[in-house]
Design goal:
- The strands form three sheets. This protein has a five-stranded antiparallel beta sheet with strand order 2-1-10-9-8, sandwiched between helices.
- It contains 14 helices and ten strands.
- The protein has helices at 3-6, 11-18, 32-35, 59-76, 120-133, 143-147, 168-172, 203-209, 218-226, 249-263, 267-273, 329-336, 342-351, 399-414, and strands at 80-87, 90-98, 114-115, 285-286, 306-308, 318-320, 338-340, 364-370, 373-379, 384-390.
- The longest helix is centred in the N-terminal third of the chain and has 18 residues, at 59-76.
- It has 416 residues and is α+β, with helices and mostly antiparallel strands.
- Strand 8 (364-370) and strand 9 (373-379) form a beta hairpin.
- The chain folds into two domains: 3-116 and 279-414, no CATH class; 125-269, DD-peptidase/beta-lactamase superfamily (Beta-lactamase, 3-Layer(aba) Sandwich).
- Helix 4 runs antiparallel to helix 14 (399-414), helix 5 packs across helix 12 and helix 10 (249-263) packs across helix 12 (329-336).
- InterPro entries: AmpC-like, Beta-lactam-related, Beta-lactam/transpept-like.
- This is CubicO group peptidase (Beta-lactamase class C family).
- Residues 66-370 form the Beta-lactamase-related domain.
């Protein structure tokens, strides 16, 4: 039985059944044409491609990219995805791929919304870039004093002596002192390698420690972490020097708070209103679980497993990992809580760096992963920008298949 056969019924039935569903079943369609629902942005349809792409990017190159995406999704059992390729901000290819949606969900189109996980961080970096360019923010500013946080959420906690040394730049560079690779902090407030946990995936634990009957707010998470020990002194390690081991989701949640504090606007309002005018972010939204009203354009997410709900700290109810059993997207916002489409990702990458601060930076790649989500954005040296999104991170051939697909797609784009 396929996943979509298992997950039939109302939205509630879908969430419940997905908790134990087997992920990665192959499609039962008679052929690729039965599986795909492909939309092309411009020009008459011709093998899924624009009729007259720029001379530098041939129809053969675009057809190969489309075929690569099609074959990957069919063979790896992915039920929804999008792929977009741009040059100079102009869309050359914008396709969507999907099986028939579960009941309660709309068919996938090029404007359907997918969670993008850590690709959210590039929007946060763009926000910091704008504030710095205006002279509104010094990236060497100390973060916790700027946020007005000077007291731990847990009275018995003693802040690390270096906590007030953390700067905005440290957070951008994953150099703030936290390490998601091994976990930020052990439950007793100290760090033992391999025993810690990422607070951005521990809303339930933090809520219980703070005696809350609801998930903590982002400000409360910041105050909670203000009282915990750092794993290294700020600025002494960073993403590159540690081979990515200093990666910190918490740091980018704090950067979202910095944007709000300095601008006086809510994070999403700033992203919608304050980036450069020709960079369209109107299709970037915060994915929501705590809000009963969901955007009908948001796709379904496929992920195995379940866990005690993060939404109700004192409840023993189990939820699917992508729907509240693992994380709450509203708390992640600029660290990993946004949703958009592949076309927006590719066009955004023409305006701002996909990694770090500043404008477009050639040769950089960023990826995102959450239960029910895989996302990638590339800015290639030849001027091509590309984004793709999937509604799962489970593949028939295992995680290596996504790595192989991503590498093949980049190689193909570099030949364009």
């Amino acid at each position: 039985m396929s996943l979509l056969e298992v997950c039939v019924g109302s939205r509630r039935e879908f969430l419940s059944s997905c908790a134990g569903a087997v992920v990665g079943a192959r499609y039962e369609a008679s052929g690729v044409a039965d599986f795909l629902q492909t939309t092309v942005l411009q020009g008459p349809i011709s093998v899924g491609l624009p009729a007259s792409p720029p001379a530098e990017v041939t129809q053969a190159n675009l057809a190969a990219a489309d075929s690569l995406m099609t074959n990957f999704m069919v063979h790896e059992g992915v039920s929804a995805g999008q792929l977009a390729i741009c040059r100079g901000g102009k869309v050359l290819l914008s396709n969507n791929y999907a099986t028939k949606p579960p009941r309660g969900y709309e068919p996938v189109t090029r404007t359907s919304l997918f969670r993008i996980a850590s690709l959210s961080k590039m929007f946060t970096c763009a926000g910091i870039t704008v504030l710095r360019s205006r002279g509104d923010l010094d990236i060497d500013a100390k973060v916790f004093p700027l946020l007005g946080i000077d007291t731990p959420a847990i009275a018995r906690d003693k802040p690390d002596p270096h906590i007030n040394e953390i700067t905005v730049k440290h957070l951008v560079d994953h150099a703030g002192g936290w390490n998601d690779h091994e976990g930020c902090v052990a439950k007793d407030g100290t760090h033992v390698p391999g025993t810690g946990w990422d607070p951005m995936f521990a809303a339930r634990q933090m809520a219980l420690e703070m005696n809350l009957n609801r998930p903590p707010s982002r400000q409360e998470i910041a105050q909670y972490m203000y009282g915990k020990k750092l794993q290294f002194a700020p600025g002494t390690q960073d993403f590159r020097s540690t081979g990515s081991k200093s990666y910190s989701n918490l740091g980018y949640m704090l950067l979202g708070l910095v944007i709000e504090k300095v601008s006086g606007q809510a994070y999403m309002d700033f992203i919608h209103k304050e980036l450069e005018p020709d960079c369209d972010t109107s299709n970037v939204y915060l994915s929501k679980l705590m809000d009963a009203v969901k955007d009908p354009r948001e796709v379904w997410y496929v992920s195995p497993g379940s866990a005690p709900t993060q939404l109700k700290p004192r409840s023993s109810d189990l939820l699917p990992s992508a729907y509240g059993g693992d994380f709450i997207p509203e708390l992640h916002d600029g660290a990993g809580g946004l949703m958009t489409n592949a076309e927006t990702l590719a066009q955004f990458s023409f305006h701002y760096a996909v990694w770090g601060l500043g404008r477009r930076a050639a040769g950089y790649t960023r990826s995102g992963s959450l239960p029910g989500t895989s996302s990638f954005t590339y800015s290639r040296p030849n001027g091509i920008d590309c984004g793709f999104v999937l509604n799962t991170r489970e593949f028939n051939g295992g995680p290596k298949r996504l790595e192989e697909f991503s590498s093949s797609l980049q190689g193909l784009l570099d030949k364009a």
